[in-house]
## 1
Amino acid sequence: MKFEINRKTGWCILTALLLSGQSCKDLLKEDVVSNIGNDYINTVKGFEDAVNAAYSTLRYYYGTQQGLTMTEYGTDIYAAGADGGYKGFHFYDTQLNPAVDYLANTWDELYRGINTCNAVIDRAPESAVSEETKKLRVAEVKFLRAHYYFILFQQWGPIDLRLTESVLPSKETSRASEADIYNAIIKDYTEAIADLPNTQSQYGRATKAAAEMGLAKVYLAKAYSGLKEDEDFVKAAQLCENVINNYGFGLLPDFASVFDENNQKNNEIVFAVQYTSDLLTNLTNNTGNVNGGNNLHLFFGMQYDVQAGMQRDILNGRPFKRLRPTTYCLDVVFGERVNDSRYKKTFKDTWLCNKPGTYPTSFDNSKATVTFELGDTTIFIPGYEMPVAQRAAKPYQVLVPSRYDEALFPTLTKFFDTKRPDMTYESGSRDYFVYRLADAYLMLAEAYLGDDRIGDATDAVNMVRERAGFEGRKEAMKITPAQMGFEFLMEERARELAGEQIRWMDLKRWGNLVERVKAHNPQAAANVNTMHLVRPIPQTQIDRSEPGAFPQNQGY
């Protein structure tokens, strides 16, 4: 059973974040409940509503364009497509500046979520709920508070650390030390792990495994930082081992089945953000995805719908052309396709006619015209430079790498959503997978590698690779310890997790964003530099602080 997460207008006092300075009318738009007093949270219903409201910030960041923009744009594996704004996140040019609304809105939303968590924790002693429920729900919001702070910290560097409820606006802000931020996040996750159950009766609530995986990510990040300690990789490995061994999760036999929209609650999912077909339930807030829902299905699509024999439909999606894979992504990361099924199962390579007729060709100059009946192949992407004579013999257009551009490119299929009511509908109903078991195995391999346990790292990676092999080719997917290295691990994470709102955070954690982008992303190579390891602090935050109290990140 899923649980409903939404916000009430009665939560004005909870979300009147001192850092935002915005009115309740600005903040809260859905499920209006009037005449709720400040003590509502002390009631059984009010306490549950507050906890559920704390989860709602997840829907702002995950499965949305703003979250995707801050996690997949401008990496080594994805570059800009033809359409859309916010390209400063791709190009690292002057378009990426403190005035960008996605920066301000994401900052504010994460702090709203944190303040709701703070309110639940601070007011729990006075709540009318049972001690057992109180302990559980406080553990959940500590998980959420740690999660939100980790996003803020990774994206912006040292930020304001608030661990008690902010009721009234204030200009008293400061940037906490990295040590204090790490300590607060680790403390929250550790306390959440102690009190969270292995499973919850309502699917989508935090569990012990989700908190362990979150804490493992923190230790991995810390292990590359100036505050690294000898035990960071060891602790990350132990937490990943727990997730893998203690809760009954398992890798699905087929990589593609992980993203089957009819099997979203599957055995590989450690923690998911839930979406539904109910538009009101999906809504985030007035600064976020106004259409609600998981809309990642929009952003990875190529312009199939104006090609010969094709028109836009629900099955193939509405192509916003926001992100296209880099040459490095296609030719190197996904270069091996004989044994590894992930290129075939990650990218769409065939389109079938939904608009019969005879048409002139566009991108395929090996023939002048093409004629299609309903259901015929109209576009095929072989993934290599098929010779002209071979293309000419095909009754359809063949899109070869030399003809890829910002509008035509292999399309990521992980987020396709065929359950939308019409072909223009932007809101999607798919859950967003925050943590899945394959990532736990790859994190475990990374932790082992950092601890010089090369054989164990190899075994962990091979679990993911074997699953990804074509039938009859799984054994050939296994690597040896001699092949196991950091470069291989980085590419393996890209193969497995492409598009899943992870890559920018990975490169930030490793500290090699600049190096990787310069080497593999020509659009951004000229501009990216070390200042881009953090985002610009939103100008709104600086303006609502005491003068000089909240300095801008260097270079912006």
Note: The CA atoms of residues 380 and 449 lie 40 Å apart.
## 2
Amino acid sequence: MFCFPLLSLLFNFIINVSPIARTIGHRGGMVISFCLSLVTLLSSMCIWYEVIFGACELYINLFGTWISLGTMDISWEIYFDVYSAHMLLTVAVVSFSVQCYSMIYMKSDPHLNLFIAYLSLFTFFMVVLVSASNMLLMFVGFEGIGVCSYLLIGYWSHRLAASKSAQKAIVVNRISDGLLLWSIIWLWWYTGSLEYDLILLNDSNNISSFLSTALLLGCMAKSVQIIFHVWLADSMEGPTPVSALIHAATLVTAGIYVMVRLSIFDNTLVLLVGSLTAIMGGIFGLFQNDLKRVIAFSTCSQLGYMMVSVGLGEFGVEASISHLMTHASFKAGLFLAAGVVIMSSGGYQNMTRYGGLTGSHCTLFGYLTLLLCGLSLMGLPETSGFYSKETIINLSYVYFHPFADYAHTLLLLAAFVTCTYTIKLFVQSFFYDFSGLDFNISPASKPNSILLTIAFTVLLFDIIAKIWIGSSLLSGILFFVPWLVKTLPVGLILAGFFTATTAVTSQSFSIIRFNATRWGFDQLYARTLVLTILDWSRITWTAGDKGLFAVNNSPVRF
């Protein structure tokens, strides 16, 4: 049973990428993908129950020793504890919903089997990452999801924007992977082991601050923290199921998961990076008009919350993994519901082309899913997002650290901005007429299928279940937080509502251009690093490839 998630995902990939796919066709590939994804989900639920309620942590040695070098002995071994079980269930729920959704969203694609295979391989490497017992096996999954993200973001390779976005994503991910690999080598040098438990048993004073900073940078690049966030919005050029899978519970949360497992970082630096990312992602999302990019920058902001929580001690680590779980469900629901809106509106993603949408245009189920997930994102009381996100905000208030008060203030501002752009999304799409009389959406174009219903039902049930399971455990210990501090986020929801309605109807904001260009990060990198590298490569091409080496390798003439 404990190997079923890995085996079912691997078989799904092999069947849909091999010549068997030509025999079974698209419909056969969809049936097999649904069945094997369901096996992954059910087995992950059983594993979660055994580990959490049965207190049954487990090691399984799959293929024996992989690398043996001196005192280092690396095995192909999977390990399930509380963190990996929670993460495995989250990945399985989101993956199953995305697989069901993609069968409708991509049904007219001529290479549907290949797309399903890419999704399965991506999820397989994510399961390898979360179930690995050591850093090196984790790095295999870390590398695998990076390569698969390149294939998925650039899946529509005939589109220049998609190809460029995939290249941008793989470059930033290579920086992340290089820093992480360098950190893994030096962790073995300092601690003599790559097992998670043995690394944590070592005195953290033996690990240099330079090494912990390099490890933090590797996790930052994968989890789109500030400076390394530039690939996030461009990855929206991929299909909507890819956006839901990458930005909900897989690629962007990998760095947070590694930090949760290790916890050997400088708290001040972690709090600084996380709080700045939270407010930056919120501001960028507020000034975007592309529906998917708004949700993408929302992911960036929520990852900042998780990063801050990692720097808040032992309770903060638990709150971080709790918010990771709840965020995965409602963020996947937001992306999938946004995809329904896009499909039913003729493929338009710009919210200024919407206005006056109703459930009759984009299915009532999709509309309600978008509404419920949006309320969870804002942290409305008694939603799963409220219990996980507000716990992080309250912990930052009571945590004894010189920078914790500043982080608390920035997180409150980020919560206010989150409420603002979420309300702005609904006002632009459903309550305010931007589209005019010429843009008419036909209700007959709305997608309708039992698979969409299954996908939304699984996610909504997961959102509701996490109110009681694994998300409200820390709220009881925060009884000593002042009442005003606890209720302040609710007031921010109201403030965000009034600010959003004002922003939508206003036409003169002097800071719109600066924030809409995402503070010029892309232009800064393009005019400094990219142009410099291109100039240097032109010199090496002229002096090396075209000059020196071309002369030495020129054919001999008689």
Note: Residues 436-445, 475-480, 554-558 have pLDDT under 50 and may be disordered.
## 3
Amino acid sequence: MNVLGIWDGHDSGAALLQGGRLSFAANEERFTRRKLEIRFPARSIEACLNDAGLIPEQIAMVAVSTFDPAKTIGRWWPGSKERYYAIRRRQATPGPLSTLTRSLKYRVTEWRSRPVLAAMSRRALHAPLVELGLAKAALTFVDHHEAHAAAAAWAADFAPCAVLTIDGVGDGLSSTISTFRDGTLTRVAESPARCSLGVFFEHVTNLLNMRELEDEGKVMALADYAAPIADQDNPLLSWIRVRDGVIETARPTRGLRGAMARIQWHYPNEQFAFLAQRVVEQTSVALARDAVRLTGLRRIALAGGVASNIRAARRIRVIPEVEDVYVFPHMGDGGLALGAAIAAAAAAGEQVDVDLSRLDLGPSYAASAIASAIREAGLRADPVDGMVSRVADALTEGRIVMWFQGRMEYGPRALGHRSVLARPDRPDLRDRLNLVLKRRVWYQPFCPSMLESEAERLLADWDGGSNTCMTMAYEVAPCFRNRLAGVISVNGSCRPQIVADDEPGEFAEVLREARARWGVGAVLNTSFNIHGEPMVCSPPEAIDVFRRSGADALAMGPFLIERP
């Protein structure tokens, strides 16, 4: 059975299961070029069908995530979410009623879903599905947190396990704990949307003049630069607690923003970020401990937007109650389409087998298409022999190389297909990337990609786990911190991609060349984009970013374009 998963909210996208196996997944931003797109994912759906060689009539089921009041209103009145998108991304100025509008938005998102809302969402989705030829497919709705949980549970591949979702809001909830046994998810605890750890951190992000739902990672990075504050002196910690797997807050989190602003007044930004980051870590650990106690299972699969906080994920990983933790690599709402497809397919009796050991699940481009894009851009490049050696030479010399090879990655991280590469031991290259090429804040660290055998010696707490896709923080051994100076945080940790030593393909070969050239099988690897824009998808986009960024070289397919 061909099952198409759809998410049409924040970071919309689509995923295709064929016979229970994942064949394609992508997010709409890569095609529309609007970061964290909110519109109906028509382009992603078309890409799924084209890649699989299917016509719309061959799709048996369309699974859509979330049918709460806020999402249903957005489907009927797209202008409402478009206005919020423009303000959140600083493309429009808030109006005189912005405070009231914000409060109303959070109130509506707290309401639970009802069957009548599913009927209304079904009616609203009818027109775009008909336009794409999907009118005959069975349409089913999947609860927001069930979609998050399904994605993490099936991808983790270590059932039975506990499944923990920690998010902003969705279908009236902010967090859930479930068991996953024999292909069945059973929920054992849930936290209401009015008590949301995700919304708490959204407020923090906004108060620091950053974009909520987008810049939370900057808040986490900024917190590393604060002088530590003892828990007993942290005024935010008493506001949120966990009891029997349920988050409880002193007041609804939508009403905390004013009180948080009054506390922020007394602290520098990095100190305020530290206070809030500590709340996220402590609450996440408390939820994980309760998940183990309530389920009797010591392995945890983790998803939801808060799961992108690698510091909190590491804290969960190292507590003695937890045997292993897996973070779904597209943990935020961008992964809901895949989760919806998994949940719906499993409910329909499909044998679901999701392999996410590789995330190159998006479009690829033939050498002829790449050559055509190069010609149309007015450039000249011939295919080169020994591409890996040429790139390794450039990296050794301290040059920055944009790397475009194979199928596009699924999720928010560059994993060796749409990447920007540099040596990992050069802080000057890190600073050049941050301030000139990527154009982002200086304190946000880059990540390394490294061979698995290197992880065993470079990372002090490497446990050989399944978090190989930049979803987990690890501590770099002190004796190797100078060798990874360009890819570690000020606290000595990093967020690595781990590549098997015998992994086929040119990217793994670059890492093997790196070990031969500078003694460490690792490179700095960041996403192929300008900060604030989506990762590149097609060859013309790669050429455009290469020209605007000032990188030294572009390795795209068999072609190497070098800047004089």
Note: The first strand starts at residue 2 and ends at 7.
## 4
Amino acid sequence: MDISLPPASSKGREVLRDLLLLLCSAFLFSLAFPGYLSRWGIGILGYVALTPAFYVASKASWIRAPLYGAFYGFICYALFNFWLATFHPLAIFIVPMIYFTYLMLTFPFLRLSVYLFPRHGYLLQVLVWISYEYLRTKGFLGYSYGIMGYSQYLYLPIIQIASLTGVWGVSMLVVFPSAFLASAWREGKILPFIRAHWKELFGYGLLLMGAMVYGWTSRVDYTSAREWKIALIQHNIDPWKGGVWAYRTNLERLIRLSDQALRERPELVVWSETAFVPGIDWHTRYREDPDVYDIVQELLSYLSRQTVPFVFGNDDGRLEKDRFGNLRRVDYNAAVLFDRGKIQTLYRKTHLVPFTEYFPYERVFPWFYRKLKEADTHFWEPGKEFTVFRAAGVAFSTPICFEDAFGYISREFVQRGAEVIINLTNDSWSGHVAAAMQHMSKAVFRAVENRRSVVRCSNGGMTCVIDPNGRILQILEPYTEGFLIGKVPVYTATQTLYTKWGDWFAFICIGVAIAGVGIGGITSIKTKISKAK
């Protein structure tokens, strides 16, 4: 079977062909995840989505490889994260430009893999890709959307290996077929390639089968675990719309929905991220605005009459000294636990959204900092502690917003004693179900990685309960006003390898990729020297 493309008659046509292939790959990539065309995503496409991209990277010249990578990175994330256009005026440009840079650096390594190992370079390409996926989640620009393993969030037998390897092991299973097919495509004939590489293909089949067997046999039985009854309030109002009238309208709806939910006798009531915007503690102490103070007192009066604890997002304002010893107000994006109207504990968000919640480079890029402030950006200070709350006899923690997209945060909470993870988030600003679904897909992995139930309370969606096996037990329709009485399994009998060791699998992939490039480079140099003699 000949699978080679028709020869290009000119460099211009060759470049055009390569760009079209990269567009095709970007389109398949976006379809594998929840998006415009499929609310739940077409996860099976993840296994072939990168094939055209690997093919182009493998055949490109050294000059074209980084340029192709830059093009692919920008188009890929502009299609996949289209909803960022409503998040922030700069976001739909900044995020694709970040991946413009990342993949501009990654494509040459994909090219180098097949240059150093013409026969088995596709194996090194898989490791290079996993290394890229992990490294881009770290640091100030850390962002986990688009990791290939997340496209499999609905396929429970496959994703159970996340309890061992985190999402990275799932990504490896998803990425291998694309690298293999691209290598076969590059050589021109697929059947001879399969015959020549049947051992590798057979090995992959065993890994895939082993992962599925593990997936069927490793799921935990939580039927004897305590069922925690909690009320999740989805009030469907964007808290970004401020002002006294908006705050009062917001509070009235939260109280009305909570009163309805309290009739079901829950053990905890949960509101979403910054469900109540004015800083309760700040306005109680400083009373800068009488109208806002009245609203805060109305909320506290309501909470003091409740016998059930409430947890929700709120601005935590503090006066703190700067490096010059001057007092200044700093704000934290916080989750606060109230019991009978009194603050019991709070958690301050540790991993802030870059550019829109946090920009620590004001002195280095003052002009860019001013641009962000002019775009009505509200900056927060990062918290430093991983708080574990306790209510109704259950220990739980509350990653805020996209913190549940990073495995290390939920793992840290579980290591400190959290029995349930409750994510408080605000996705209503996006106006797109795809944004909420892409966010929720990551929470599925947090459940599997730690074998803990994960609850999500969003003001617009997706408000849901996920069991320790990653199965979505209950879910509210997005962008609707309502509440969900969650029946949450409090399962703590298993401590997973991921909880103990974290991202060990990603570290191994990075180490082997570096070693592979190093050994291949040394071998190539020795070969050239030998031929020169």
Note: The mean pLDDT is 92.
